[in-house]
């Protein structure tokens, strides 16, 4: 606890020191703006900075709505990008001035004073070099921000198909080569373009998966959000079935209810939606998936989170009951923190777990060889494929979106796994 407090204090002091540096740059960019030169500007600027820092820690440590948390953290990191770019320009100007002073000192004589040159009436006055660099720095910081703002609004329906080979040492021969599709975090209450949503479903079906997993968060808050989209997702079918589970948003915990009975009716309606779409909802139970006499286990539990602000309804003891004879067990569990907190230490018989929940915070960088998002400071496993000993986890960054109506760098995902018997020759996340 003391180490955490010390870390928070140190990070906060560094951020505030950077803000003081930024203030000096803003004053250099606008030397004639009286308000910018006043102490009241410093007070307002630092107050806003403190509020943004608090918002960051609230998003990481306090139990609040997931959408609000994502929005708070996104605002913090967006303004941090602008400041980081601006700080580079301030630093360049400081180096320039330092070298200039050092050169003058070494010459042991002041800079020559040149006679003023009369500028033509039609020529704009020259901008001092420092002022120019400061204004250029602010402009450079705003350009990526504007570009990200535009691209974020157009990328929420830019579905990406990510393909993986899923190696399972004990996989029966009849399952070798089968295709498994995964989608997660639909969050139907956030959608506003039915045609685009349907296009993503078409992309999934075009892959011709043999079975499909949906790993939770069908809605944001209430079951009726699916009314306009049930017909679209009813098309999600596969020869060996579609298996689903619930996420933290599906229970109605973030909505207001007049009584417990109303909340229960909402959950019952959501369960009925899964059934109406032909999806097999797994709530602390399992299914035996058979192909030509051979079997594997498909297990699904209700939401189970290591982080206290999210519900913990899952029962692994019930889901794993009577599954000891199955050679392979695949687990659907919405929250990836469940893997490290309970699955790894207590359930070594689980071969692979499939999750969602993080959305990759809808902000970050993700390529074939590298990925980063601020959400990594909350979740050890937040996107892609992970291995530990003989067990595996895949975290899908989501089909939909919530809170912030956009995605920057972390695009909506459709995952296609090819089941393979044997050991993974490259056991690393991608």
- In round numbers, the mean pLDDT is 87
Share of β-strand residues: 15-25%
Largest pleated sheet:
6 strands, mixed
Rg on CA atoms, Å = 27 Å
Quaternary state reads single chain
How many DSSP E strands? Answer: 14
- In the predicted model, the low-confidence regions spanning at least 5 consecutive residues are none
Describe the fold and architecture.
This protein is of the alpha/beta class and 430 residues long. The protein has ten helices and 14 strands. The radius of gyration is 27 Å and the shape is elongated.
List the helices and strands and how they pair.
Layout: H1 2-29, H2 34-37, H3 39-61, H4 66-107, H5 129-154, E1 160-168, E2 179-183, H6 194-206, E3 211-215, H7 230-233, E4 242-245, H8 260-276, E5 280-281, E6 285-291, E7 294-300, H9 316-319, E8 329-332, H10 337-346, E9 352-355, E10 365-366, E11 371-372, E12 384-388, E13 391-395, E14 413-421
Helix pairs in contact: 1-3, 1-4, 1-5, 3-4, 4-5
